[in-house]
Amino acid sequence: MIALPGGPGNDSNYWSVGEFGPDRLSLEKSVSQWYKEGRSKPFLLAMPVLDPGPDTHGIYWVASDIPSQPKTGTWLTEDVPDLMKANFRTIKDRAGWSYMDSSTGGFASLKAVLKHPGKFKTDIANGPDIVPDSPLWRGHEKEMRENNPKVLAKRLAAAKGPDVYVAFQVGTKENAATINAVKNFMAAYGKGPVHTGLWEIPDGTHNGATYLKEMEGPMQWISEQMEGPTPSS
Question: Which residues contact 6 (CB under 8 A, 6 or more apart)?
Answer without folding.
Answer: 50, 101, 102, 103, 104, 105, 106, 127, 208
